[in-house]
Design goal:
single chain, mainly alpha, two-stranded parallel ribbon, about 0% strand, globular
Length: about 350
C-alpha cells in the first residue's frame, strides 16, 4: 500500500510527564488520560514533517461501533424479563475482562440493569453517567454546597430535540454519544487541541455532511446486526482490506490512569497536587476522601475504571486550577515546559 510507518512506544511514565501540558492545551479538567498519547503522537507526526492527518473519529458514532450500542440492546433484552438469570450472561460476551468469576451476574445486574428505566430518554448512557458521577464523592462540603440545585442530567433532558422521543433507541444513543462525548471531548480535548498543540491539523472524513446524512438515514440493522458492529462499513471494507483487518474485533483505545501516576518514579507534581494543604487551598476536593483514594492507588488496589476516573479528575482539576486560576507553582511550570521539549521516553 506504499505506506510509511513510524512506531513509538508510549509508557505510563510518558503520560504522567506530559499530563500538565495536556491540561494546558485542553483548558479543562479531564477524567481520562487518553489525550496524552494523542499529544505525543501529534508531536511525532510533526517531527516527521506531517502537518495534516486523517482521523477516523465519527465512524463509531455513525455506524454503532462502540460496545455502548450493543450494551444498550442487551440491557433492553434483559429488562424484558427482569427475573431471568441467563440473559445477563450476554454481558460476559461484551465485557469478558470485567468482573470475572462467579459473581459476574450480580455485577451486571447491579451496574447495567439497575441503572434506570428503559423509558428514560437517557437510558443508553445512564450506567456511564452514574459511573462518572462517583467523582462527586470526593468533593469538599463547600464545593458540594455550591452545586446545590444544579442538575446536569435534567438540563440534558430538557435540551433534547423535539423529535428525540420518536427515534429508535440506538439512534438516541448515537445522538447522546455525539453531543456528550464526540463533540466536546473526542473532537476537541482529545482531538483538535492535542493535534494543534504541535501545529498538526486533523481532518475527519467520516463527519463529512454527505456521509453523515447517508449514515443517519440507514436502518439500525445496517449498522448493528445482532451484536456485530459497523456491519455496512465492514462489508464495504471487505473489498478493499484484508479479511484480518475488515473482520477484526474492535479494540478499545485506552491509556493507563493510576499506573501512570503511581508506578516507577512519579513526577513531583503528583504528590504536590494531592497534598492535604494543596487540596484545602483549591477547595474543590475533600482531602480526607482523596487521601483514601491515594492509599488505594499506592497499594495497587485501585484497578477499576471508577477509581481511575476519580484520580484523573482530581489531578487534572488541580492542574487546571494552578494553570488558569492561580499563579502556577514554579516546579509545576518547569515540568510543563519539560513536557514540551523532552523526547518521548526521556
Amino acid at each position: 500500500m506504499r505506506s510509511r510507518h513510524a512506531v513509538q512506544y508510549i509508557g505510563p511514565e510518558d503520560i504522567a510527564r506530559v499530563f500538565p501540558a495536556v491540561i494546558r492545551h485542553t483548558e479543562t479538567p479531564l477524567v481520562r488520560t487518553a489525550p496524552a498519547p494523542l499529544y505525543l503522537l501529534s508531536r511525532l507526526a510533526r517531527e516527521r514533517g506531517i502537518k495534516v492527518v486523517l482521523s477516523g473519529e465519527g465512524a463509531d458514532e455513525l455506524f454503532y461501533g462502540y460496545d455502548l450500542f450493543k450494551e444498550t440492546v442487551v440491557r433492553q433484552f434483559c429488562l424484558r424479563q427482569p427475573e431471568s438469570t441467563s440473559r445477563p450472561r450476554l454481558f460476559d460476551r461484551l465485557y469478558p475482562y470485567l468482573a470475572p468469576g462467579t459473581r459476574a451476574g450480580e455485577f451486571w445486574r447491579r451496574f447495567f440493569l439497575g441503572a434506570g428505566s428503559a423509558d428514560d430518554p437517557l437510558f443508553s448512557h445512564m450506567p456511564r453517567f452514574r459511573l462518572t458521577a462517583w467523582i462527586k464523592e470526593f468533593y469538599s462540603d463547600d464545593f458540594r454546597a455550591g452545586l446545590r440545585g444544579f442538575d446536569a442530567l435534567g438540563e440534558l433532558r430538557d435540551a433534547l430535540p423535539p423529535a428525540f422521543a420518536r427515534w429508535s433507541t440506538l439512534a438516541r444513543a448515537a445522538y447522546l454519544e455525539m453531543v456528550t462525548l464526540l463533540s466536546p471531548y473526542l473532537l476537541a480535548s482529545q482531538g483538535d487541541r492535542m493535534a494543534m498543540a504541535h501545529g498538526v491539523e486533523a481532518r475527519v472524513p467520516y463527519l463529512d455532511h454527505r456521509l453523515f446524512e447517508f449514515a443517519a438515514a440507514l436502518p439500525d440493522r445496517s449498522k448493528l446486526r445482532g451484536l456485530h458492529e459497523k456491519d455496512i462499513l465492514r462489508r464495504w471494507a471487505a473489498a478493499l482490506l484484508p479479511a484480518s483487518a475488515a473482520g477484526r474485533t474492535k479494540q478499545p483505545y485506552r491509556a493507563p490512569d493510576v499506573p501512570a501516576f503511581f508506578e516507577g518514579t512519579p513526577p513531583e507534581y503528583v504528590a504536590e497536587l494531592l497534598d492535604d494543604a494543596a487540596l484545602r487551598r483549591s477547595g474543590v476536593f475533600d482531602p480526607g476522601a482523596v487521601a483514601g483514594l491515594v492509599r488505594r492507588c499506592r497499594a495497587g488496589h485501585a484497578t477499576g475504571v471508577r477509581e481511575g476516573q476519580a484520580l484523573v479528575a482530581v489531578l487534572s482539576t488541580e492542574l487546571w486550577q494552578r494553570e488558569f486560576l492561580a499563579a502556577p507553582a514554579v516546579d509545576v511550570a518547569e515540568h510543563t515546559q519539560e513536557a514540551y521539549s523532552a523526547p518521548i521516553g526521556a
